Amino acid sequence: MAETWTRGDYPRTITLDPSGRYLYALNQRSDNVTRFAVDPHSGKLSFIAGYTPVGSPSQMVFAPATQ
C-alpha cells in the first residue's frame, strides 16, 4: 500500500459513516478531519483529497436522515 500524506496528525477518533462507504479520521493535533472512501469489495481505503479544518476534533456523530 502506498503511503499518502493526509495532513492529519494524532488521529484521536476513526469512524465509519452509517453507509460504510466513508471512513473519517479526526486529527487532534492538526485540527482537521480527513475522509477516505472504503472499497466495498476489498475494504481498501482511498484518501479523498482535501481536509476539513476543525478545532481539535474529538468525536463525530451521524444524525439519522429525515424525510
Automatic annotation (TrEMBL):
The record ties this protein, via SUPFAM superfamilies, to:
Nitrous oxide reductase, N-terminal domain
PANTHER family for this protein: 6-PHOSPHOGLUCONOLACTONASE, 6-PHOSPHOGLUCONOLACTONASE-RELATED
- Annotated protein name in UniProt: 3-carboxymuconate cyclase
Q: Which GO terms describe its molecular function?
A: 6-phosphogluconolactonase activity
Q: What is the lineage of its organism?
A: Bacteria, Pseudomonadati, Pseudomonadota, Gammaproteobacteria, Enterobacterales
- Say which family it is in: Belongs to the cycloisomerase 2 family.
Q: Which Pfam families match?
A: Lactonase (PF10282)
Question: Which GO biological-process labels does this protein carry?
Answer: glucose metabolic process
Q: Name one GO cellular component term.
A: cytosol
Superkingdom in the source lineage: Bacteria
Q: Which InterPro entries match?
A: Cycloisomerase_2 (IPR050282), Lactonase_7-beta_prop (IPR019405), N2O_reductase_N (IPR011045), WD40/YVTN_repeat-like_dom_sf (IPR015943)
Q: Which UniProt keywords apply?
A: Carbohydrate metabolism, Glucose metabolism
